Amino acid sequence: MPSPKPLTHRPPRHFRLPTQEATESLARALAGTARPGDCWALSGEMGSGKSTFARAFLRALTQNSALEVPSPTFSLVQPYETPVGPAYHYDLWRLEGPESLAELAWDEACAGLMLVEWPERAEDCLPPDAVQLIFSIPVPEKASGLKDSGEVETQMREVTVRNWPPERAFPEVAGLSGAALS
Ligand SMILES: Nc1ncnc2c1ncn2[C@@H]1O[C@H](COP(=O)(O)OP(=O)(O)OP(=O)(O)O)[C@@H](O)[C@H]1O
Ligand SMILES: [Mg+2]
């Protein structure tokens, strides 16, 4: 009988995140699996929860629930020391082009642990094995929670996790069950 093919990927997982606490709980669980060399690519529309996820992830990683984690909107990158080595939080929304990454400690960051908001802006410079988290605000909740000011009132978010490392077990997330997508 032929031996089974090595597992090259895991199916994507989809989570509903009804509250900010749910997003933070997922971030803490995933941070528990983090290793040097990881790239966590956080995609999704504005306000969908990328920085909220990154903040909870970095607080868990540093075991410091009061850690200041500003959104690096203008500096584009914020470094952290963590027990698993240096970590770098990027927000590439304002990146002029991937050639500018060299000035943002990108090569050092690729050897360390990276959390990257707006990863599409890094184009081919993004590590191909990055774990992809795609956040969104579900349309029905967005429509019903839209205020006159244009702000969204709903806390409901969703995330799909793709490209999970095949050799890494996906952690249990307290209070959340992720649906495996085919
Ligand atoms: N379920 C939820 N998950 C994450 N954030 C939520 C949730 N519910 C409400 N929020 C709120 O939504 C906002 C998300 O903002 P956040 O800065 O994390 O978004 P972002 O995706 O990083 O946006 P940007 O693209 O502008 O950087 C915060 O104000 C947060 O309190
Ligand atoms: Mg952000």
Automatic annotation (TrEMBL):
Gene3D superfamilies: P-loop containing nucleotide triphosphate hydrolases. Its main location: cytoplasm. InterPro entries: P-loop_NTPase, T6A_TsaE. It comes from the Bacteria. The keyword Cell wall biogenesis/degradation does not apply. Keywords: ATP-binding, Cytoplasm, Magnesium, Metal-binding, Nucleotide-binding, Transferase, tRNA processing. It is found in: Cytoplasm. Pfam families: TsaE (PF02367). GO terms for cellular component: cytoplasm. PANTHER family: TRNA THREONYLCARBAMOYLADENOSINE BIOSYNTHESIS PROTEIN TSAE. This is tRNA threonylcarbamoyladenosine biosynthesis protein TsaE. The lineage of its organism: Bacteria, Pseudomonadati, Pseudomonadota, Alphaproteobacteria, Acetobacterales. The gene is tsaE.
